[in-house]
Structures are given as structure tokens and as C-alpha cells.
Amino acid sequence: MDSVFIIEKSAIIVAVFALTMLMAMYSTWAERKVAAFLQDRVGPNRAGWGGLLQPLADGAKLFTKEEFFPNTPNKFLFILGPFIAMSTALITSAVIPWGDKIHVFGKDVLLQATDIDVSVLYVFGVLSIGVYGIMIGAWASNNKYSLMSAVRASSQMISYEVAMGLAMISILMMSGSLSLKEITVMQANDGWNIFYQPLAFIIFLICSFAETNRTPFDLAECESELIGGYHTEYSSMKMGFYLFAEYANMFISSAILSVVFLGGYHFPGMDWVNANWGINIGAILGFLALFAKICFFIFFYMWVRWTIPRFRYDQLMHLGWKILIPLAVINIIITGIVMVLFK
Amino acid sequence: MLLYVFYILSAITLGTAFLTVISKNAIHSAIYLVVCFFSLAGHYLLFNAQFLAVVHIIVYAGAIMVLLLFTLMLMNLNNEDETSKPLYTKFAAVISAGLLCLVLIAALRKALPENIEYVNSGTDFQSIKVLGKVLLNEYAVPFEFASVLLLVSMIGAVLISKKEEKI
Predict the structure, then answer these.
(1) Rounded to whole angstroms, how far apart are CA atoms A141 and A70?
(2) A135 interface with B at CB cutoff 8 Å
(3) Domains of chain B: total
(4) DSSP-assigned states of every residue in A6-23
(5) Is residue B42 part of a domain?
(6) Over the stretch A93-137, which tens digit does the pLDDT of each residue have?
(7) Distance from CA of A271 to the nearest CA of B (A)
(8) How many structural domains does chain A have?
(9) Residue A109: in which H helix or E strand, if any?
(10) Tell me: the pLDDT tens digits for B61-90?
(11) Which of A117, A125, A154 sits opposite B69 (nearest CB)?
């Protein structure tokens, strides 16, 4: 393995890591601003211009808070919980194609940490272990409200993973590949998936809300029933990690939604730009296009959060098992029939 | 280099497998089991079997989440009330598991993998495109048997969980 390859990949990984952290930080700011806008308020405006330094102030506050341990026999698992939540939120970004090739130092560099053969499955794998952070942390807090919240979170996660996977299958049937890079290339050639698979898109979107534990599916953090939810016993930066992981998850799931359904880094006229202005500018514009799509989805998450009230638990399970899963199966059947008839 | 990775992974696998059996706390057992499955996925990655590794994590990590939930909801976590099985059932369980292992080893020892033509032609038979073809051409019958097995277990689960009607 040559050192140039290692340096190139390390640079991309560090850049993606920094981007995810930055976006997670500023999502907290954006969430407050959007909430304020939707409720006809001003929102944070003390720290920096327009409250732009608010995330730093929050971070400093969380770091300097008292570190509190509940009376638990499982200190190790208690610390492990936020650790797992944060790491699983960050490692998904490895397979997301952030852009096309760029040409620097006489070398083609792919703007992606790794293009593995099974990246879609990798995303689902990370998703299925993401809930361990919540589950282990909440169980180790030795608090019945935390435990209730974790049981809710994990059963919700297990239920919605099924519908999400089934919605994904119809996309995979069309693309014939499990690589997110190839799914993007296919969309650049044939048109975005959202136009071919609107039903799958809606199912996937709803399931993303459930998987990231966002309102209207944030039953795990139902304050009126469960105090604070799974992080009731956490304080200081350990709680900060849980909150941060939620926003990092939101960013990553927005990125996956954009890559799978909105064409990733593809934008109308990409071929023309590549041919006339060079591939570097094309790749940078592509990255900006992907970034704009991601920001749109993040805004959409917040918009929904401050618009739709929380579901009840039985409504949530009903929606997942009795509506979304049958719809996803029907969507697969229709996709199969259409593919056989028109190919 | 890879050999050392193999040693470390094997140590983790064996250690956590023992801890799964030994630890008194059911939740700790489940967590050790997760770590054990992750190190097994690492073994698959050493063989360059990416698909198998990722599917292993999805299926087993998800399954253990269900196991954790069941442990929390259904099992009695108090040690005092726990009824220990008599010694002879433990022996019977160990012996039957050993017999099953013997049968499997005997059956698989002489079995030749159906991938000789792929090895000869130099195709990467770990890539999912080839893997799918192999599963549905050479291994179609075992594949279908596996799906029938899953169906049967699913129906069985529904039957067990169904409430009995009172006559």
C-alpha cells in the first residue's frame, strides 16, 4: 500500500469528519432559528452575529458542567453508551459519495472515503447497531424511565428498519447495484430516483424520521411521560454526545436520502459543466449541489418537528407494521412488473 | 500483519464467547455476544467476504437487539427466583450439541465448494453480482431449503405467540 493512497484517504476522512461535526454543531443553531421562525420569535441572537457563536457557547457550557454519575453498578456501560451513539453516527459517512472525481497533483481523487461493493448494506448495518448506544446507556443508568425510553427507541428502530429496507429494495432492483456511487451514476444517466419511485421515497423519508428519533416519532424523548428519555441520568459532555449524535444522524440520513433519491452530487447540466469548465469545477459544483440537498432535508426535518405533534406509541407501531410495510411490498411488486414489461 | 489481526480477533471471539456463557447477568451476556459476533464479522473481512460480514452484522446485531428486549421484558432478572436446570439436562444439551457438531463436520469435510470455475476464470466470487448468481444457480436447492426453514420458524413463532382460545 503506497503512502500517497493513505494520505489521500486520510485527508478525505478528516474532511468528512470535520464536515459532519460542523454540520451537527450548526444544526443545533439552525434548529433554534427555525423553531423561532416558525413560532414568530427571534431565536438566539446574543453570542455572535445572529447567534452564530451559540453552538460554541453551548459546547463550552456542556464541557464545564459537573460530571454526575448515578448510583449504578455498570459504570463502564454507562460511559460506553454515548461513545457508541457518537461513533455509529459518524462512521456511516465513510461510504457516501460526496462528489465526482477531482484532478489534483496530477492524480484523480474520488471524493469518497471508500467505495465498497456493499455500501447500502453497510449503511443498514451501522443503522442496526446505532440503537445499541441508547439501549446500553439507558440500561446502565439504572433508571426505569430511561429504560422505558430505550425499549421504545429500540422497538421503534427494529420496526422501521424493515419498511426502510423494503423501500430500498425497489431502488436496488432498478440500479442493480449496492454501491451508493453506482446508484448516483445511474441517476445521473437515467434521471433521479424520486421521479421513478415516489412511494419508496415517502416510505424512506418517514422511516428516516423514525430511525433518527425525530418528532413526530421521538417517543423515546417524550418529556411529559419519561422525564428526559434515555439521557435522563446523563450530564455534562456525555449528554452532549447523545444530543450531538442525534444531529449527526440527521445530517447523515439527509445525505443518504439525497444520494439515493435526489441524485447525490448530480445536478442538471452537470455533463455540460464537466465538458466546458473542466471536471474540477464540475465536482465542486456537484458537492455544493449535494450540500444544498442535504441542507434542504435538514430544514425539512426541523420544519416537520415544529409542525406535527408527537404520535402515540400504538399509532407509531400501527403506521410502521400495518401501513408502511405493506406499501413497501406493493411497491416492490409494481417495480418488478414494470421492469419486466418495459425492459 | 494479517496473521496478528487474526490472532487478536480469535482471542476476542473466544474470550467473549466464554464470557457470554459464564456471566451471571443476562444483559452482560447479550453484550458479550454482540462483541463476539462483531469479531466474527472481522474474520469474514479477513477472507475479503464483505457481503457476508455486513449481512452478519445486520442480521445478528439486529437479532441480539431483539434478544435484549426479550431479556428485559420477559425474563426474570432476579437471581433468587431463577430455577436452575438439573445437571443431567445440562449434560444432555452439551452432548447433543457435540453430536450436531460432529454430523456437520462429517458432512462438510468432504464437500467441495462449487466455485472451481470462478477460481479458474479468476472472477471475484465474493462480489455480490457473482454471489447472487452462484446462490441461485449452483446453490438453488439449499437456498430454497433455507427459505423454507425460515418460513417454518416464522409460522412457528406466530403459533406460539398466539393467545390460546379458552374452550
Answers:
(1) 7
(2) yes
(3) 1
(4) HHHHHHHHHHHHHHHHHH
(5) yes
(6) 888 888 777 777 667 777 777 777 788 888 888 888 878 888 888
(7) 29
(8) 1
(9) strand A107-110
(10) 777 777 777 666 666 555 555 566 677 887
(11) A154
